[in-house]
Design a protein that fits this description.
Helix content is 41%, strand content 19%. It is globular, with a radius of gyration of 19 Å. Helix 1 (16-27) crosses helix 9, helix 4 (102-120) packs parallel to helix 5 and helix 6 packs antiparallel against helix 7. The protein contains ten helices and 14 strands. The protein has helices at residues 16-27, 48-60, 75-79, 102-120, 134-143, 158-171, 212-224, 226-234, 240-255, 302-324; strands at residues 6-11, 37-42, 66-72, 84-87, 126-129, 153-155, 179-180, 183-185, 193-195, 200-201, 204-205, 263-268, 280-288, 291-294. The chain folds into two domains: 6-155, 3-Layer(aba) Sandwich (Rossmann fold), CATH 3.40.50; 157-321, Lactate dehydrogenase/glycoside hydrolase, family 4, C-terminal (L-2-Hydroxyisocaproate Dehydrogenase, Chain A, domain 2, Alpha-Beta Complex), CATH 3.90.110. Strand 10 (200-201) and strand 11 form a beta hairpin. By secondary structure, it is α/β, with parallel strands linked by helices. It binds nicotinamide-adenine-dinucleotide and (2S)-2-hydroxybutanedioic acid. Nicotinamide-adenine-dinucleotide (NAD) binds next to helix 1 and helix 9. GO terms for molecular function: L-malate dehydrogenase (NAD+) activity. Residues 157-322 form the Lactate/malate dehydrogenase C-terminal domain.
Amino acid sequence: MNTTPVTVAVTGAAGQIGYSLLFRIAHGDLLGPERPVRLRLLEIPQALPALEGTVMELQDCAFPLLADVEIDSDARTVFDGAQLALLVGARPRAKGMERSDLLEANGAIFTEQGRALNDVAHDDVRVVVTGNPANTNALIAQRNAPDIPESRFSALTRLDHNRAAAMLAAETKTSVAKVKNLSVWGNHSATQYPDLDHAMVAGRPALDLVSRKWVTDTFIPTVSQRGAAVLQARGASSAASAASATLDHARDLMLGNRHGDWTSMAVVSDGSYGVPAGLVSSFPVTTSGGDWSVVQGLEISEFSRSRIDASVAELESERDAVQQLGLI
Ligand code: NAD
Ligand code: LMR
């Protein structure tokens, strides 16, 4: 049993996702019930007083696995020796904004953080980006960290994957535990493609249980617009579900995904499935010991091809925009 504490850095720690995420990490939901964690929390200077309050609450929970907590507004201090960096801090989307509006606002944050990770993080660091626009923020951080292997960077599409699993389970009147082999392709945005072509429900192909019409007219639009629907209903973007998905993503990355299943993650493309190499795009992946592999050999229908291509085209335009801004 390895009881050496793992150093986990979290950015945007005083935000709404942070308020859910930190307590679950400290409780052991990330690395399991035996592995202590050291939390290193990054915030902008104005948010440090609020973050001090969150740290008091973390202490008051008396979590046995929480080895210690440090907070700072300097990325180099916070990322020093980090083995896992969860990049959550960014400006969230307000009502009426598209993710593309966030590119410029958030680009500067991720260039600086990429450089800091490059210089001071642990040699073996894994970097997970939740802050939106997550795929392109991950691309910016990765390109600004030339000494870190590109496979160490990933971005969150697990919330979309989880939303798709929950919706399919409800439609087929089963439990999410019986849903397998869903794929989310492309960007974490309205163009994402949640794909049921290979999905199984309780051992049966999902497409034997639901109609094509439901997939195209209800399932895909509902999953891809779910973030906007939550934002509209709550008046704030999803937080507890985003924290839970961040944990699911990072836990699967570090400890391996569910046996016989795969998950969805945005990773640096190696050209698989015709996605241009270098783009951070979501794929079906299996994970083990901090590494991932794209699930290979899936048959891609004409419909899937067009949906994947549309989302990848959006990622290419985001990449071109940040290139023009000099961020990569
Ligand atoms: P929030 O506004 O409540 O918190 C963001 C925090 O980041 C704030 O406390 C802010 O001070 C901090 N921050 C800003 N700039 C920073 C910097 N340079 N360094 C460190 N911290 C900084 O937002 P939230 O609801 O917690 O959401 C955080 C991000 O996650 C947003 O970009 C949101 O759009 C995104 N999000 C992504 C997904 C996903 O599935 N990928 C889901 C939900 C939310
Ligand atoms: C989500 O999917 O809930 C987040 O990305 C928030 C948003 O802005 O849609």
